[in-house]
Specification:
The protein is α/β, with parallel strands linked by helices. Helices cover 27% and strands 33% of the residues. The structure holds 1-{4-[(3-aminopropyl)amino]butyl}guanidine. The site of 1-{4-[(3-aminopropyl)amino]butyl}guanidine has 15 residues, from strand 5.
């Protein structure tokens, strides 16, 4: 009898699927907020899937986690208090704690089960969640930022796609609350989807952030398992401009994607992306 093959498909658009062979379904759950799955894939190793969308894999998680973390943290000259909204797998916290000057990194995650499953099945990614400089707070990120003022140097919004529990993390009122939640020289970054498929979203977010923050920038990176592979991040800053950073002063840390030479280059946009914003 022929060996049975199991394949997982993320329906990335109504007309396009991203499919990979899986050797094992490690864990599935219906949480209070979403469907969760941890799959063992042949190509990328373990994969975290929420509501059918690939969140991270062992093979390519470094691309996303380094890009969303080190650009803001090397733009702020002295980030001491940092918050991650979402990001229950812990990958962003791991990257943040590579910065010695960070005193405390808060993970503000709505779904406790994402953290628990990641701790159990994705230890390479979640490993820093038990660090003494990390603090996990299980609550709604929107509520958290609107209840805390003038508190953080850097906020990183590591959300899922703008459907289900993450919808509110893409709204103007949330960016206003993020502004208030940052210190007077604070800055934030949010993941803002694919410039190939999500142009309306990127445009809306960019203009919303621009109407609130004095400095607004879009940068791009390559994440093989996300729709189109090309991914965008929107940065809003009260004072520090990522393009003004003295890259000769960036400390070398252990990274596989980010490096000082890339810091400003990430903000150089292809023409079709320049035209979005
Ligand atoms: N958060 C962004 C995931 C977006 C992926 N979208 C998709 N596959 N359709 C990732 C969380 C990693 N910490």
């Amino acid at each position: 009898m022929a060996e049975m093959e199991l394949w997982f498909t993320e329906q990335q658009t109504p007309d396009l699927g991203f499919t990979c062979k899986i050797t094992k379904t490690i864990y599935t759950a219906k949480t209070q907020y979403q469907d969760l799955a941890i799959l063992e894939t042949k190509q990328f190793g373990r994969m975290l899937v929420l509501d059918g969308a690939v969140q991270t894999t062992i093979a390519d998680e470094f691309c996303y986690h380094e890009l969303i973390s080190h650009v803001p943290l090397f733009t702020h000259p002295n980030p001491k208090k940092v918050a991650v909204i979402g990001g229950g797998d812990g990958g962003v916290i791991r990257e943040i704690l590579k910065h010695d000057e960070v005193e405390k990194a808060y993970l503000i995650e709505i779904d406790r089960e994402v953290i628990e499953a990641s701790k159990k099945y994705l230890p390479e990614i979640s490993c820093a969640l038990d660090d003494e400089r990390a603090e996990v707070i299980i609550t709604d990120g929107i509520k958290f930022v609107s209840e805390n003022k003038n508190m953080f140097d850097v906020i990183i919004v590591d959300s899922t796609d703008p459907v289900g529990p993450a919808v509110g993390l893409f709204q103007d009122s949330f960016y206003k609350a993020v502004f208030e939640c940052l210190k007077e020289d604070g800055l934030f970054v949010a993941q803002t989807e694919s410039p190939f498929y999500d142009q309306d979203l990127i445009k809306n977010v960019f203009h919303a952030v621009k109407s609130i923050f004095p400095i607004t920038r879009l940068y791009l990176g390559f994440i093989p398992t996300y729709p189109s592979g090309l991914w965008s991040f929107t940065l809003g800053s009260k004072k520090y401009d990522p393009l003004e950073v003295d890259i000769s002063r960036i400390k070398r840390i252990d990274t596989k994607y980010y490096n000082p030479e890339l810091h400003k280059a990430l903000f150089a946009l292809p023409t079709f992306v320049q035209e979005i914003i």
